[in-house]
Write a structure and sequence with these properties.
Structural class: alpha+beta
Helix content: 25-40%
Strand content: 25-35%
Radius of gyration: 22 Å
Shape: globular
Number of helices: 11
Length: 411
């Protein structure tokens, strides 16, 4: 039998560290200290099998930027199960337990990265849009933008880097994690890395920088964190990256949602062809690797301010997470029937109106619609969303949103 409960640092730390070693999240003894610091700055639930902790799920508090407003966010940053407890649904039960606690404490939305599509759909998550990972030779950047000598940053500068990430330019879908100590631990858990940036704030604050991991003399070099306040600063960082092209042969960068990096790369198709079978293969690849789910429907809809035509409809919503929660859970998901009103001021109220059309949807599909991942007419083809052609077309017109993206902060 399995039991899901809150993490107890005094009694559970060694068991969770053992699991992390088993799955190779920890490979060196010096990483144990930083993994422990992660737990100190996360909310963690564990599952016991035969009185031993064999599964762990952890979340971090943060914000999710929706259009021009912020939602309180639970970010699921670590879920793992030991090798002796697979296929017991422990990860789903433990994660559901954790989400319920976060939602009861005020989380309006929950976000996570996936190892495979389908697993977290069972907890009400829907897949985000394709995220483009661009691998390019930095010497091929088509930039004449000037750059200055940067400041060399190290893990000791974690506080100023976290501050820059929190204060960076935000677009629709961007996320921020509140804990600076968690950010410090993550930097120290990484392998060989370097960071460069500029302190242009009025009091010398770090305004724009990037943090990158690299393995060999010539790369590949992966930019894991990037922050800037405006596009001038972004171009200066790109120009700085270009300057590294004398030595580094490949850089991997997640494309910002509002930028098409292919515009700035010399002969990207030629580069892909000539490097195809080599160690520095250039490419542009897209994958939907993150998912989200609404945790407080009324709050999320109330913070939805749209310029399109006003629209009202009934929503019959199915949230599957309830199947994984026990009867004592402080929160039971958001299944139910609602009247939704979308426009400059929006709201969601329990009930139905016989005069309005009805949309039937799983929570994952509705979350994708509300985020702007895909239009209603497209989701009706590939996901669990159903309504009349007229209603789907009206939703397409009303929910015209920018492409959501996490914005340089991966977790």
């Amino acid at each position: 039998m399995s039991t899901v409960r809150a993490y107890d640092a005094a009694n559970d730390r060694d068991a969770v560290i053992r699991i992390w070693r088993e799955v190779h999240w920890i490979e060196k003894d010096e990483q144990v200290e930083w993994a422990s610091q992660c737990f100190e700055n996360l909310r963690t639930d564990v599952a016991e099998v035969n009185s031993e902790v064999e599964c762990q799920a952890s979340s971090a508090e943060g914000t999710f930027h929706y259009l021009e407003t912020n939602l309180s966010m639970s970010a699921i940053v670590a879920v793992t199960t030991s090798r002796i407890a697979r296929k017991l649904r422990l990860a789903q039960q433990t994660t559901a337990h954790l989400i319920a606690r976060d939602a009861a404490d005020g989380a309006e939305i929950c976000v996570l990265s996936i190892f495979e599509q389908g697993f977290y759909n069972l907890l009400g998550f829907g897949t985000g849009p394709y995220v483009h990972s661009v691998e390019f030779d930095p010497a091929d950047l088509l930039l004449n933008h000037p750059f200055r000598i940067p400041k060399r940053l190290t893990v000791d500068d974690w506080a100023m880097m976290h501050s820059a990430m929190m204060n960076r330019r935000l677009t629709h879908g961007n996320c921020r994690l509140n804990s600076s100590r968690l950010f410090q631990a993550k930097l120290n858990l990484r392998g060989k890395s370097f960071a460069l940036g500029y302190c242009d704030g009025p009091n010398g604050e770090l305004t724009h920088f990037f943090w990158a991991t690299d393995k060999e003399e010539h790369g590949p070099c992966e930019i894991e964190f990037i922050a800037y306040n405006n596009h001038e600063q972004f171009l200066e960082l790109l120009a700085l990256i270009r300057s590294l092209g004398d030595q580094i042969r490949l850089v991997r960068l997640t494309e910002p949602p509002e930028i098409q990096l292919q515009d700035l790369i010399k002969q990207p198709f030629r580069g892909r062809m000539v490097s195809e079978n080599g160690p520095y293969r250039q490419s542009i690849e897209g994958v939907g690797y993150w998912q989200a789910r609404i945790c407080n429907l009324a709050a999320c809809i109330a913070k939805t301010h749209l310029e399109g035509p006003r629209l009202q409809f009934n929503l019959k919503l199915d949230d599957p997470i309830e199947k994984y929660l026990d009867s004592e859970s402080p929160w039971r998901g958001v299944s139910g029937e609602y009247v939704i009103s979308l426009g400059p001021e929006s709201n969601a109220k329990l009930g139905t109106s016989p005069e309005l059309p009805t949309l039937k949807a799983s929570l994952g599909a509705f979350t994708r619609l509300w985020l702007g991942v895909r239009p209603a007419t497209g989701l009706a083809v590939t996901d669990d969303l159903d309504g009349s052609p007229a209603l789907l077309s009206a939703l397409d017109q009303t929910l015209r949103l920018p492409n959501p993206g996490l914005g340089g902060w991966e977790f």
